[in-house]
Amino acid sequence: MLLYNFNRDEKDMIMLKIISTTPYTDQKMGTGGIRKKSKTAAQPNYVENFIQSLFDAIGGVKGQTFVLGGDGRYYNNIAIQKIIKIAAANDMKKLIVGQNGYISTPASSNVLLKNHADGGLVLSASHNPGGENGDFGIKYATKTGGQCSSQISDAIYARTKEIKEYKIFDTPDIDLSKIGVQKLGEMEIEVIDPVKDYVAMMEKIFDFAAIKKLFQNGFTMVFDAMNAVTGPYALKIFEEVLGAPKGSVLNYTPKPDFGGLHPDPNLIYAKPLVDLMYSDHAPDLGAANDGDGDRNMILGRKFFVTPSDSLAILTDNYKYIPAYKNGIYGVAKSAATSTAVSRVAKALNIGYYEVPTGWKYFCNLMDSKRVTFCGEESFGTGSSHIREKDGIWAVLFWLNIIAATGKSVQEITEEFWHKYGRSYYLRFDFEGIDTTVADKLMADVESKLSHLVGKTFAGYEVSKAYPFIYNDPVDGSSTKNGLIVCFKDGSRIVYRLSGTGTSGATLRVYLEVYEQKRLDEQPLAMLENLTKAAMEIAEIQERTGKTKADIIT
Ligand code: VG1
Ligand code: CO
C-alpha cells in the first residue's frame, strides 16, 4: 500500500514510496546468506523485506557505498532492480554494479575491498540449481569483504520478523548494460566491468608469463563454467590472456537456469567434464566452478584431486607463486575437511587452524595475518587476496605449479602422497530428511559421544568423540558446529547438518582414513567399513530409512 509519496525529481518522475508490508518469518541466514526456492523468493515483497531488514539491522545505509551483482540465475534481473531502488530510497550514496547485473562472489569481494565499500550483495544460491524451479539467494558481505558474523545475521533475521514497511523508488528499471555512471535520486550507480579488475588482481598473484609459455608448448585444458557466472572471466583469462586454445572454456554464457545444469563442481554434477577427463582424448587439466565462482574442481587426465588434497598441495607448493614466494603465514581448513593440510602445515612450520564450516570463519584469521590460505572439503579454496573462496584463483594456482614444475596433475598429487601419506576422504550426503528427525539424530549422537570412547564399530575403535567448538582467537566468539568421532588408527567421522539447503534437512557425514603405504586404492573401498561404522553410530538407517547416501562427493 502506498502511504505517501513525493516527487524527488519531477524530470525523471522518481517517486519515493513507503510501502507497508507484512513480515516473512523464514528469512534466517544460513551458511553464506539467505537461500530459498526461487518461487519463495519471488513472492511479493520477499526480497524487499529482506533487503530493508538488512539495511535497518546494520544501522541504515545512508551515505554508504555497496557493491551489487549476481550470478545471472533466474530472478537476478528482477531482484537487482528492486535492490537498486530500495538502496536509493534509503539514501545510499553509491552502488557499484556489475555490468548486466553479473558479478562473481570472488570478483565482488575484490571490488568491495578495492573501493573500500561498506558492503556487498551477491544474488546467488551458489552451487544450488537455478531457474524458476531452482533456488535463489542473496549473500551479504560487510566492509571486510567477507560474509557477516552470526551476530549480524541474527540481527537481520530478527528485523525480518518485525518489519512493517520498506522504502523504494517508483521509477523505471535502470539500464545495467552500459559501463558508466548514472543517478537514481541522489544515489550514484556505477556500472563496471567486473572482469577487468579481477584479471588485474590475478595477474599480480600468478606468473602469467610462465603459464602463457605452458600453453605455447602445447598444454591443454578444459574449464567448464557450467553456464554460470565465471564464463566471461574464464574466457578472458584462460583463452584471451593466457592463450589456452580456443574452445578450452565450455558453457561460458551465464544462463538463468544454467542451461539445465546444476552448477556444483563435483564428480556428480559436472559429469560431462568428468567423462571427458576420463576419456582417451582428455586434456592435461580439467576444471569447473560453481554458480557464483567461488568453488573449484580440479582434474588431471583420468585423475581427480579431492578438494582437501588440493588445499594441502597448493600450500605445499606456495613458493612457486610470485605473490606467496616470500612466505605464507599459515593455513586454515574447516573441521570437516581432511587432515591432509595439517601435515603440510607441520612440515612447513606455519600457522594451522581448524574452523567451523563456512568461509566467514576464515576471515578473522586472514585479517590478523594468522593464515594466508584457506580451504573447505566442499570444493572451496582461496587466499587472503580477498575474503571469499575463489574458483579461478585455484585453477590458476594449479596451472602455475604445473608451469613451474613441468609435472602433471597426477604426478604432483602422487608425489604429495608419497611425501605425506594419503587421506582417503569422501563426504556422504543424506538429503531431504525431515528436520525434526535430523535434529533429533544430531542431538542423540551428541549426547552419547562420551560413551562411544573405547567401543568398536565395524572394526574401528573410538579414541575420542566430541562436538566441534571453535573459539575465534580474534574476537573471542565461540561456535559449535558438527560432531567429531576419532578412531585409534587415525580415521575420523564428522557429522553435521547443512546450512544451505532449501528443502528439509541434509545430513553430511565426512569420512577419512589415513594411509602411509597403500596409496593407490579406491576411496569407496577404503572407506567401506568406516561407512558402516558411521551408519551404525548415528543409526542413520533406523532414523531416516536411508540405507545409503544420496550423494557421495
Ligand atoms: C556448504 C558447504 C560449506 C560452504 C557452503 C557455502 O555448506 O558444506 O563448506 O562454505 O556450502 O558454499 P553446508 O552448510 O550446506 O554444508 V557456496 O559455494 O554455496 O557459498
Ligand atoms: Co559458491
Structure description:
The protein is α/β, with parallel strands linked by helices and 553 residues long. It is built from 18 helices and 26 strands. It has a 7-stranded mixed sheet with strand order 3-7-6-4-5-10-9, with helices on both faces. The chain has a 7-stranded antiparallel sheet with strand order 21-22-23-24-25-20-26. Helix 2 (46-57) crosses helix 5 and helix 7 (208-216) packs across helix 13 (391-405). It starts with a strand and ends with a strand. It binds alpha-D-glucose-1-phosphate-6-vanadate and cobalt (II) ion. Alpha-D-glucose-1-phosphate-6-vanadate (VG1) binds next to loops. Cobalt (II) ion binds at residues 105, 126-127, 290-292, 294-295.
Give the gist of this structure:
The chain has 553 residues and is α/β, with parallel strands linked by helices. The protein contains 18 helices and 26 strands.
- Range of strand content: 25-35%
What is the terminal-to-terminal distance?
48 Å
Structural class: alpha/beta
Oligomer: single chain
Low-confidence parts: 1-11
Shape: globular
The residue fraction in helices comes out at 25-40%
Residue-averaged pLDDT, rounded? 95
Give a topology summary.
Elements: E1 2-9, E2 14-20, E3 34-37, H1 38-41, H2 46-57, E4 65-70, H3 76-89, E5 94-102, H4 105-114, E6 119-123, E7 135-142, H5 150-160, E8 165-170, E9 180-184, E10 187-192, H6 194-205, H7 208-216, E11 221-224, H8 231-241, E12 249-250, H9 271-277, E13 285-289, E14 296-300, E15 303-305, H10 307-316, E16 330-334, H11 340-348, E17 351-355, H12 360-367, E18 373-376, E19 380-383, H13 391-405, H14 409-420, E20 422-433, H15 435-452, E21 456-457, E22 460-471, E23 478-487, E24 492-497, E25 505-515, H16 523-526, H17 528-537, H18 540-544, E26 551-552
Parallel strand pairs: 4-5, 4-6, 5-10, 11-12, 11-13, 16-17, 16-18
Antiparallel strand pairs: 1-2, 2-8, 3-7, 6-7, 9-10, 13-14, 14-15, 18-19, 20-25, 20-26, 21-22, 22-23, 23-24, 24-25
Helix pairs in contact: 2-3, 2-5, 4-6, 7-13, 10-11
